[in-house]
Specification:
The protein contains 34 helices and 24 strands. By secondary structure, the protein is α/β, with parallel strands linked by helices. Among the domains are: about 325 residues, 3-Layer(aba) Sandwich (Rossmann fold); about 240 residues, Rossmann fold (3-Layer(aba) Sandwich). Bound molecules: pyridoxal-5'-phosphate (PLP). Its cofactor is pyridoxal 5'-phosphate.
Length: about 800
């Protein structure tokens, strides 16, 4: 394997872990907790034993972190997220605890290859993409910068689907990540809370007939049971808890049904409870319209809130101090029903009055908006909401009355503005607007990049912003440098340590010391050698998995992310087709060899996205087997993009494709991972690309295409893609090749609707940006040709990306939103 090329180093010589002792411990765990001895242990047994050994070391710190927060009466953060895309945890834990080398050695003394068992650890894919990965990076950063937090989510039995490519098409298979058990988690049967659905609301009146309180009488009841996973920060400073809820049927009900002989009924109840934590909805930009989704959202919101209130009451005895001791964060609108649920708990269970409860609620919650795409703004039909959550419906109306009165009192809101502020969308089918509910119930609403935050103020939340002008703020996303540099790129880490010392390991800002070395020819050579080894690692993977040979000296041009029309993989593929054409028409030119890599999953119901995957594979087949291309261009679609694959692909990239239609990508975090690992970016002025340009400098990033304002202008002036296409010979030629079946001789019309869409409306401005994109690609070839220049720019990228660390992001959340010390 490649471990010979890329050596992993331990960063904590002070820990002085004896590999011999570690080996004994592994054997002990294997024997007494796994019931096996070394002679019969399978690789999975070794994996489980290794994880349990490191887990045991984490537990002491975990208990003390939790106790510390309690003793100091520290304010705690609660991060509610329907997704945590954590990936594998073993390397993370070993690396953060400085045990990597010792563990390798210990296992090797037992005849076990660390890399082999590490590859067996399932990739915990409890998320779709960027939003879920952000939650995972935040958990790691909070443990590192010492913020006491509980992450709350759902323990999906089937997380993100596993993608296979068969005959070029995406096939979705279940990812059974729990099949071999999950050695990281602790089931907490004693932390279980009841969750109700449906039923009716009774009002209780006092002797004088005045309304005293409401009592919700749900007809369905299930249990949410906690499973805890420790999250360890850098150098094991703090260990926080990720608490995931699993659905379970309420035993007494089941028992009664069984006793009454209703076995089928009992089974149905148990399946219903099970279903709540069975699947993650595999769509990241459209709300799954299903009732089950709303049930999941309520399920994990109420369980988390009950847990939080119980903890608060047992420590402080009174809920009025909740906002001083708890900051509850809503990661997107998925948990926003929590606003109504906290109100219900405060009003109906704890007997507070409305004004008190509303004040506590607003001071406790904060909300992050992740998208402006209209189809992704969650809303639920009023009849569905009312049927599942009748009491919450009443509360939503009560909150709505409150905010509409506030708006009217201001006097300068038009009827249209009032209806856009309303929590209920009255146009057509009446729906509850979850974004408005989250906004109304939070003291802070943040966007995830400077551009996105400004657009939020001008578009979706324009009127709510006018009503509550102090609430919207920006927190540009970040990534954890532990996973996205130290762990995934040990070669670059070792080189940087050698060149500038170890300070950057603890303070990523110190990586800026590399900047001066961009002009040092010897350093550039070493940097290029590391990049080359990382590319070789990817080339081996591609050769093993796909049987495609790629040359590591070619430029590795990579676009990996969810497949979505706004992310414009199509623009990249069409450019590949145009380049293919050019190479064949002008064989005399000195073309720079390139490999274009694609990877990403499409939502199973997203027709065009799946067609784009097929097109990438069709183009790859034709281009890769055409001898006239002479290997100057290769196209590779790498299946099953997930965190573990990202860890191999990010460090291997020369060029990072961040080419969304301006105004549509809220931030992006893939863009940051690439640049931190020394790739240059080709991108639009969208999301965090705008801020990346400011940090790395205009000369070290390739910006092309329309700006957000220009996109809006083009649309307003009646954009006509047909004329644009006619005016670009390269684009016309590429599109006619695709639409006439050059890449799909078995089904020549396969891409007709895709290309027709470009001619007819081109919602995502692919045609409008094509020439600018293709020209920029040819300029990039010229920079690539000048290798010292290229690597100097790449080094500047690494040195100047530290601001995009999620440590920085988390410090800003802590100081400016949560009011907790860091
Ligand atoms: C970082 C990451 C993403 C987000 O990528 P974008 O390019 O920002 O959309 C998605 N999936 C995985 C596995 C990631 O690691």
């Amino acid at each position: 394997m490649t471990s010979a090329v890329i050596s992993e180093t331990s960063f904590l010589p002070s820990e002085n872990i004896d590999p011999k002792e570690l080996a004994d411990e592994i054997l002990r765990v294997l024997k007494y907790r796994g019931g096996k001895d070394a002679t019969v242990a399978t690789p999975h047994d070794w994996l489980t034993a290794s994880i349990k050994v490191v887990r045991d070391r984490i537990i002491d710190r975990w208990v003390s972190s939790t106790k510390e927060a309690y003793d100091q009466s520290a304010k705690r953060v609660y991060y509610l997220s329907l997704e945590f895309l954590i990936g594998r945890l073993m390397r993370d834990a070993f690396s953060n605890l400085g045990m990597m080398d010792a563990m390798r050695e210990a296992l090797s003394s037992l005849g076990v290859d660390f890399d082999v068992i590490a590859a067996l650890e399932p990739d915990a894919a409890l998320g779709n993409g960027g939003l879920g990965r952000l939650a995972a990076c935040f958990m790691e950063s909070m443990a590192t910068v010492d913020v006491p937090v509980h992450g709350y989510g759902i323990r999906y039995v089937n997380g993100m689907f596993r993608q296979e490519i068969r005959d070029g098409w995406q096939v979705e298979l279940p990812e059974n990540w729990l099949d071999h058990g999950n050695p990281w988690e602790f089931e907490r049967r004693e932390r279980a809370f009841e969750v109700g659905f449906g039923g009716s609301v009774e009002s209780v009146t006092d002797a004088q007939g005045r309304l005293e309180r409401h009592i919700w009488k749900p007809t369905e009841r299930v249990l949410a049971v906690a499973y805890d996973t420790p999250v360890v920060g850098w150098r094991g400073k703090r260990v926080n808890t990720l608490r995931l809820w699993a659905g379970m049927s309420l035993d007494p009900i089941l028992l009664a049904a069984f006793n009454a002989g209703d076995h089928i009924g009992a089974l149905r109840e148990s399946n219903k409870a099970d279903a709540l934590s069975r699947v993650l909805y595999p769509a990241d930009a459209t709300p799954a319209g299903q009732e089950l989704r709303l049930r999941q959202e309520y399920f994990f919101s109420t369980a988390s809130l009950q847990d939080i209130l119980q903890r608060h009451l047992s420590q402080y005895g009174d809920l009025h101090s909740l906002p001083d001791k708890a900051a509850i964060h809503l990661n997107d609108t998925h948990p926003s029903v929590a606003v109504a649920e906290l109100m219900r708990l405060l009003l109906d269970v704890h007997g507070l009055d409305f004004d008190d409860a509303w004040d506590i609620t607003k001071r406790t919650f904060a909300y992050t908006n992740h998208t402006l795409l209209p189809e992704a703004l969650e809303s639920w039909p009023v009849p569905l909401f009312e049927r599942l959550l009748p009491r919450h419906m009443q509360i939503v109306y009560a909150i709505n009355a409150q905010i509409l009165i506030e708006a009217r009192a201001k006097g300068d809101f038009s009827g249209e503005q009032i209806s856009s502020i309303s929590l209920i969308n009255e146009g057509g089918e009446r729906r509850v607007r979850m974004g408005n509910l989250a906004f109304a119930g939070s003291h802070s609403i943040n966007g995830v990049s400077a551009l996105h935050t400004e657009l939020m103020k001008e578009t979706v939340f324009a009127d709510l912003h006018k009503l509550y002008p102090t609430r919207i703020n920006n927190k540009t996303n970040g990534i954890t440098p532990r996973r996205w540099l130290i762990q995934c790129n040990p070669g670059l880490t070792a080189l940087a340590r050698e060149a500038i010392g170890d300070r950057f390991l603890d303070d990523i800002d110190a990586i800026s010391d590399l900047d001066a070395l961009a002009s040092d020819a010897a350093f550039r050579e070493k940097f290029a050698a590391v990049k080359r080894a990382n590319k070789q690692r990817l080339a081996s993977l591609v050769s093993e998995r796909l049987g495609i040979r790629v040359d590591p000296s070619a430029m590795f041009d990579i676009q990996i992310k969810r497949i979505h029309e706004y992310k414009r993989q199509l623009l990249n593929i069409i450019e590949a087709v145009a380049l293919y054409d050019q190479i064949r028409s002008h064989p005399e030119r000195d073309w720079m060899p390139r490999v274009k890599f694609f990877g990403g999953k499409a939502a199973p119901s997203y027709h065009n996205a799946k067609l784009i995957i097929k097109l990438a594979n069709d183009v790859a087949r034709v281009v890769n087997s055409d001898p006239s291309v002479r290997g100057l261009l290769k196209v590779v679609f790498v299946p099953n993009y997930n965190v573990s694959l990202a860890e191999i692909m990010m460090p291997a990239a020369d060029l990072s494709e961040q080419i969304s239609t301006a105004g549509m990508e809220a931030s992006g975090t893939g863009n940051m991972k690439f640049a931190l690992n020394g790739a240059l970016t080709i991108g639009t002025l969208d999301g965090a690309n705008v801020e990346m340009k400011e940090h790395v400098g205009d000369d070290n990033i390739f910006i092309f295409g329309l700006t957000t304002e220009e996109v809006a202008q083009r649309r307003a002036n009646g954009y006509n893609p047909r004329d644009v296409i006619a005016g670009s010979p390269e684009l016309s030629q590429a599109l006619s090749a695709i639409s006439s079946g050059v890449f799909s001789p078995d089904d020549p019309d396969r891409y007709r609707e895709l290309t027709d869409g470009l001619y007819q409306h081109d919602w995502f401005m692919v045609a409008a940006d094509f020439d600018s994109y293709a020209d920029t690609q040819r300029k990039i070839d010229e920079v690539w040709r000048d290798s010292p220049l290229w690597y100097a720019k790449a080094i500047h990228n690494v040195a100047r990306m530290s601001w995009f660390s999620s440590d920085r992001t988390i410090r800003q959340y802590a100081e400016e939103i949560w009011n907790v010390p860091v």
